[in-house]
Amino acid sequence: MKVYNITSPETFLEMIKQCKGSVELVSKQGDRLNLKSELTKYIAVSKLFADNTLINDLELIASDPDDVKFLLEYMMEEK
Fold it and tell me: Of 41, 50, 56, 67, which cross-links 19 as Cys (Cβ 3.0–4.6 Å)?
């Protein structure tokens, strides 16, 4: 799933934390980084959100269909 226009990294990460299954960030090189892992989350996301500005485009893979629905609802509410 593509995620666009993340304006609040902290809120976004809280939403990821609430997911039941794994949620992976796919890098431009095709690497998958597990955002449910605290260490991976802080390393990967700190680079993405370093200047605390709008993130235009991320690709996420959620293992649980309910998590996909949950994240889509979150993104719709953010608009």
Answer: 67
